[in-house]
Amino acid sequence: MSKNKKDIKEEQQDQPVKDQIEDVIDEAIDEVENDENGKANEEETPELTEEEKLKEDLQKEKDKFLRLFAEFENYKRRTSKERLELFKTANQEVMTAMLPVLDDFDRALNELRKSGDENLVHGVELIHNKFKETLTSKGLEPMNVEEGDAFDSEIHEAITQIPAPKDKLKGKIVDVVERGYKLGERIIRFPKVVTGK
Q1: Where is the composition biased (Acidic residues) (predicted)?
Q2: What domains sit in the chain, N to C, each tagged with a CATH number?
Q3: Average pLDDT of 73-102?
């Protein structure tokens, strides 16, 4: 069936050059494939039994399942932690907006007490207390800072420094200008204080 070289040369002379090149390339490809098939048969590895293949597949699936399960557990833990943080601080923007209203209530009560009208003071105190209780129930806590406390730049905001009226107030808080507040563990407004020098 194989053609000898003389017959091939005669056929090539009758064909156009393009066809001749394609034939040479096809023959080279056939030779390479035959060589590879011969080598593949020599190097054949022993076949795994069907049971061994199934065990190997099962082990791969178990490994994949365990990795996926571990990733899912980490995801659940992370999202629940983020959700708790979000719930704790979700009110922060609203609380921060309400703080000036609370300050105004405090100032109004102080001025009303000076007027001497007990009924008016009592009515405003009721509203003030209800407002404070509502904010407290949502997690707002006032920071207790008083005259004579040590100044801490981490939790206090010094707006000015004045000569200390007493020697024991040097380097300490002399006056609290604006009260500070916490929402949970986070400080949402630092207390503004005057320190003594």
Answers
A1: 22-35
A2: 68-138 (no CATH), 141-197 (2.30.22.10)
A3: 86
